[in-house]
Amino acid sequence: MAWYWIVLIVIVALFALTFLVYITNADMKMAEKLYNRLLAYHDQKDVEEKL
Predict the structure, then answer these.
(1) Where, by residue number, does the polypeptide cross the bilayer (predicted)?
(2) Number of continuous H segments (helices) and E segments (strands) in the chain
(3) Distances 43 to 5, 35, 37, 47 between C-alpha atoms, Å
(4) What is the enclosing helix (H) or strand (E) of 47?
(5) Cα–Cα distance for residue pair 28/13, rounded to 1 Å
(6) Are 27 and 21 in contact (CB under 8 A)?
(7) What is the pLDDT of residue 11?
(8) How far is CA 41 from CA 8, 18, 29, 32, 38, in A?
């Protein structure tokens, strides 16, 4: 198999993966889970409020 077929297969696979992420909105679902975990982490920290 020639090297350019391998490169073409890799490019098509990356395109298919990014298209799947775009269609399923997976990037924002992952960002939402990360955001919720960060909120929970910061809500349980003790903070001294100075006025």
Answers:
(1) 6-24
(2) 2, 0
(3) 52, 12, 10, 9
(4) none
(5) 21
(6) yes
(7) 98
(8) 44, 30, 19, 14, 5
Hey, what are 11's tokens? 């490019």
What is the rounded distance in angstroms from the CA atom of residue 22 to the CA atom of residue 20? 5
**pLDDT per residue over 1-51, tens digit each?**
899 999 999 999 999 999 999 999 988 999 999 999 999 999 998 888 888
Prediction pTM value: 0.58
Which tokens belong to 5? 């077929």
d(CA 27, CA 24): 8
User: Distance of alpha carbon 4 from its chain centroid, rounded?
Assistant: 29
